[in-house]
Fold this sequence. Notes:
This protein is of the alpha/beta class.
Amino acid sequence: MEKLIISCCICGAEVTKENNPAVPYTVEEIVREAKSAYDAGAALIHLHVREDDGTPTQSKARFQECVDAIRKVCPDVISQPSTGGAVGMTDLERLQSTEIVPTPEMATLDCGTCNFGGDEIFINTDNTIYNFGKIMIERGIKPECEVFDKGMIDIALKAAKKGYIKSPIHFDFVLGVQMTATPRDLVYMATSIPAGSTWTATGIGKTCWDIVACTIAMGGHVRVGFEDNVYMSKGVLAKSNGEMVERVVQMAKLMNREVATPAEAREILGLAPLK
Ligand code: KMH
Ligand code: ZN
């Protein structure tokens, strides 16, 4: 089986220190969490950034500062800025994370609109998706297509057919927001993408660890981190993102799945080797 890429979503835009005091806001905290994940075995950091008070931002300057600082302590990690940002941000605001220098190797591309709880709607129209896809092709950024349900896989494939996303596509199945997060859901998603695609899966909240186990067994790649879940088990907060990555590494070992280094992850994802 292909080696396992572990992605870590260290910060997110919605989770707060009230949910878990270790959630990072400042540059120093973001670097601390990225390093803990990298040292534990994460090859890829999915990155959101915050103001010091925790307010989510897509500021180019803040992304630049964080990515530069992460690179100093995790020299070969794949940094994957979010273009999803937080609910309610404009497309222009969201795209700032792709403008840093050097251009990021990857960025997320959210492939549909979905309910985010209460009155919150995370809006991604077809035109937004096509525009983000076109910009990523122009800038040489590999998108990770965030799909929150099966319909979003179809939207991504429609965008690919129109030339806005290059194949093979890398998907991230985000389960437990809009659709449920059962093994059956995961199998449905994984069998709904074209041959040759790669995929990562994440289960939000208490579904996290079941989805990790199923994904390792199915040959997919795994995402964990505070953006998606702050608990190791019921009522037990994770002390760091690294603690969660460490558990994924242990689970992979027990299940005879080797963990990919950043260089191996680049090869699996079709990214250029690091110069
Ligand atoms: N914070 C969500 C509204 C992404 O990073 O691309 C969007 C999100 C997806 O987290
Ligand atoms: Zn995100």
